[in-house]
Amino acid sequence: MQIAHRIADMKESATLAVGARAAALKAQGVDVVGFSMGEPDFDTPANIKRAAIAALESGMTKYAPTAGDGAAREAIARKLHDENGIVCRSADVTVTAGAKHAVYMALQTMIEPGRGDEVILPTPAWVSYRPLIELAGGVCVEVPGSIDNGFRVTAAQVHAAITQRTIAILLNSPSNPCGIVYPADELRAIVDVIAAHPNVAILSDEIYEKLIFPEIWPGISHWSPGSDPRVADRTITINGMSKAFAMTGWRIGYLCAPGANGRFAKEVIKLQGQMTNSIASFFLPAIVEALSPASAAEVEKMRAAFASRAVLMHRLLSAIPGFRTTQPTGAFYSFPDISQLFGRLSPAGVVIDSAQAFADALLNEAHVAVVPGEDFGVCARGHVRFSFACAPAQIEKGIARVDAFTRSLIMGSAPLPSAPSAAAAVTLRRL
Length: 431
Description:
By secondary structure, the chain is of the alpha/beta class. Helix content is 37%, strand content 13%.
């Protein structure tokens, strides 16, 4: 049977692959500590579940409109207007099968295969962005961030990357995999560059917007590029319910594209109608409930817990010799540079010559699952991603194993240095 090259040549999701390996080991009875999946360990708030249960029990089990019903789309449009400052209508919104589905459809609608359309991608970036750009027939142009600048790219870098073939830039703040937030002034500086290039659109993936930690970086907050009138008609805002509302398994995302009287949104919805049609109809009232004031307290409780875990994770990782870290200020990821460990041997004799080799040996020998950095961008090849979307006890247990494993690595007969002092380990600093 024939397999298309564009599928055969596409890499599988690194995060899902590591998660699957960890799950297989757990099924065999191995005590694996998982830092690979970006999935909150909290349950979906009860009021949101009750909204879906009530809809199901009331008989809301038939097909829904492709883009979602009026109530859900209106709730999303109202949220975007009131919270994000985005001028939009419910007709500009479509409800998707997760935010990944929204990114996929936006790129498929925007990119003309064979034309050499370029999409600028600040990296390190989520593992699926590049494959989705290339699957649509586009060219992914990486703009590398540096740990020295908190992984954030500059407006000057974006300006230098724009060519006559650039059609879009894909932004993600707070960031997966870096756990960092772009300050509003830095995002505005990037938008200033885009505003001067009328043929360049913005895809703004804001799935982690409610998971920002001003208690770590005072004054930090979320800003949506789609709120800037200069680029509002060419900004596609993507979000969903998975992360902030602990609704990963519900697979609910959304896309808003208000430009040109909703023309782009209409084309996306047309594509969606040939793909998935709507999400499950009885989930639609859960969207309305999630975006209502009744859910705010539970969302804040989870956000505060992630902020505390961000401090804990950074403190523990910073104490591991050979790790270079930066303090997470959003989402639930830490992305240390481990390249100082390359060239060493694991206790089982594995040469640690890459992030992939480190992650494989760590899982096989210490039973800790992390995601290697190779698929997050060229500049990320010396990094690994830790998700702290798990309980503090699991974080402490797992990082203790990472620390012991790292100290067991040898180069010749020289072990890694002993643990630094507690004072040196605590390096909570502003980016």
